[in-house]
């Protein structure tokens, strides 16, 4: 029978077959759920340290707040930059020989990123007075910045390994590491900061020592998990000398991702300042909205990171159909959870919000803005997935461009919007920003996919 020239030929036996959407969604969901739990565990550990230090001297608490204000964005950039290793890991997940050099070079990337962060933290006692920080807070720092400098260097290596585990789909191992981190923090932080029995109260020094010890122990655990729970089991993976071209390739993919986190962090800081200019009630309500939005948005973050390896493998095979199917499956998993959480917050806000604050004025503001909060988190979930898809395609630069423009405009307009319309107008502007990010990143994803 002659071949119809107007009809595509049937795919050959070696043509890639796209798994059904339901199968992809189940695979992504199984990887995302342990990662979501690990994120919740990490947040609990951070809250414990902050709560314990609330019982120390005021100067030490101020010094801790100063150091953490520097530490958090540094860790954010390091973690975002290390995401650049995920597509390289995902496309080699079944080949230990090819994976070994990726592991080695990702560790070198983490050391370079961590070294930069360590220098910034170690110089804090010198830079803080120049920024006008209260001398009492600077004096209270003591050796805490130096402990944090070592902590962030070791933490960078640990983050490189957990990122590798995510890229290999071993998110249960990530959960084990996170639970161990939280459990150790629950024991060591109160013990070393407040003291107990023969252990003296060490205050801020104790907090730094606890963070460093926990990081050292869990970094060793992460190495054990990597070498026993993945395809690298039984294969020797030494540090060795890096292949700088490979390190740079990963950094070139990861740095824009880290940049997006930093841009968003900076813009949200500007919004906080804008609301503080309006009044304490508005500032408090804004902070509660940010906390709730962060919790509701976590499932989208977990799903986005979990499906990067799926995108990378399909892209390596040149299978555009499967890449698109992975994105749709990600939406199938993440969006119902985020929408359901937002709807629950909307329906039960009258019960949940009083658990967060007993100020009736703050409660009223937050409850009035639950609808716009829902709009923000749903739009944020929608934009996050194509953004992570671009990372899986090793082309995250459009994401950084989108964040710089959209969040830059939001930050520039924050103060006038707050003065004119208060908290409501600022959060509606936030919703418009996330919607614009969704349109921008979806378009960039489609254009990038078309060139695959």
From TrEMBL:
Belongs to the multi antimicrobial extrusion (MATE) (TC 2.A.66.1) family. InterPro entries: MATE_fam (IPR002528), MATE_MdtK (IPR050222). This is Probable multidrug resistance protein NorM. Keywords: Membrane, Transmembrane, Transmembrane helix, Transport. The chain crosses the membrane at residues 35-55, 61-78, 107-126, 138-161, 173-196, 202-226, 261-280, 286-312, 333-356, 362-379, 400-418, 424-449. Multidrug efflux pump.
């Amino acid at each position: 029978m002659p071949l119809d020239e107007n009809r595509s030929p049937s795919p050959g036996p070696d043509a890639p077959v796209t798994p059904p959407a339901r199968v992809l969604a189940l695979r992504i969901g199984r990887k995302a759920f342990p990662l979501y739990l690990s994120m919740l565990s990490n947040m609990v550990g951070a809250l414990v340290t902050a709560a314990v230090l609330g019982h120390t001297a005021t100067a030490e608490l101020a010094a801790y707040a100063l150091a953490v204000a520097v530490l958090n964005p540094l860790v954010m950039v390091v973690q975002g930059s290390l995401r650049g290793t995920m597509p390289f890991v995902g496309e080699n997940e079944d080949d230990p020989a090819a994976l070994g050099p990726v592991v080695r070079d990702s560790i070198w990337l983490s050391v370079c990123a961590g070294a930069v962060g360590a220098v910034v933290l170690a110089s804090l006692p010198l830079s803080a007075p120049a920024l006008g920080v209260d001398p009492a807070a600077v004096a209270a720092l003591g050796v805490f910045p130096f402990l944090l400098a070592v902590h962030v260097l070791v933490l960078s290596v640990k983050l490189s390994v957990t990122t590798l585990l995510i890229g290999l789909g071993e998110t249960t191992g990530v959960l084990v590491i996170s639970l161990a981190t939280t459990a150790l923090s629950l024991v060591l932080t109160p013990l070393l900061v407040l003291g107990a029995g023969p252990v003296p109260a060490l205050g801020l020094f104790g907090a730094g020592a606890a963070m460093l010890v926990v990081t050292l122990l869990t970094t060793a655990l992460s190495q054990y998990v990597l070498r026993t729970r993945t395809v690298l089991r039984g294969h020797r993976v030494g540090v060795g000398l890096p292949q700088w071209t490979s390190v740079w390739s990963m950094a070139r993919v990861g740095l824009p991702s880290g940049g997006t986190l930093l841009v968003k962090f900076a813009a949200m800081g500007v919004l906080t300042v804008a609301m503080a200019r309006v009044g304490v009630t508005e500032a408090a309500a804004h902070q509660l909205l940010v906390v709730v939005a962060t919790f509701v948005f976590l499932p989208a973050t977990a799903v986005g990171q979990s499906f990067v390896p799926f995108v990378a493998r399909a892209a390596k095979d040149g299978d555009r159909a499967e890449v698109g199917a992975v994105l749709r499956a990600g939406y199938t998993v993440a969006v119902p959870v985020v929408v359901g959480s937002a709807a629950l917050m909307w329906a039960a806000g009258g019960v949940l919000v009083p658990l967060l604050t007993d100020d009736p004025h703050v409660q009223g503001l937050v409850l009035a803005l639950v609808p716009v909060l829902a709009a923000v988190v749903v739009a944020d979930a929608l934009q996050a997935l194509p953004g992570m898809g671009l990372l899986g395609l090793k082309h995250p630069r459009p994401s950084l461009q989108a964040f710089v423009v959209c969040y830059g405009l939001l930050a520039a307009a924050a103060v006038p919007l707050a003065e004119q319309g208060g908290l409501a107008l600022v959060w509606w502007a936030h919703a418009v920003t996330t919607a614009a990010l969704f349109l921008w990143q979806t378009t960039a994803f489609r254009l990038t996919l078309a060139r695959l």
